[in-house]
Amino acid sequence: MATIKYETIIKYLDAIDLKGSLSASGAPHGVFWKDPAGNNLPLTAFKSLSITVPGGPIKIFNETQYDQSPLYLILLGSWNGRPQMPKTGPYITDPGYSVTVDGNAVAGTQIKDDLLAWLKQEFPPAASKPSKL
Length: 133
Hints:
The chain is α+β, with helices and mostly antiparallel strands. The chain has helices at about 5-20, 45, 70-75, 110-120, and strands at about 50-55, 55-60, 100, 105. The chain is globular, with a radius of gyration of 15 Å.
């Protein structure tokens, strides 16, 4: 399996936001993957991020069950009483959905697969983590 780079995930989030009918900038959580100056968050800050949503802050990654990370789940459908994101679509799960990243069309299914692969590499299951001897 190819390594998915953090920068690729950020490019996907940017492209999803750009294609969305509402920008994340108007949501309570804002463009959470950027700092106030519009720069990408450092990887360590992104991986430990909690965002503001109605009902209180939420950690966007589940470090013990990567495939149950709220960021991943909410891009696939409603999650925990919240609508699928981006709020009014279009969604990466829509038939024929694609965005342009670095001049190339990327299908929603590819974004889903790459995000899951990135989560697995960044938050490996306990049995896969190297032991600390």
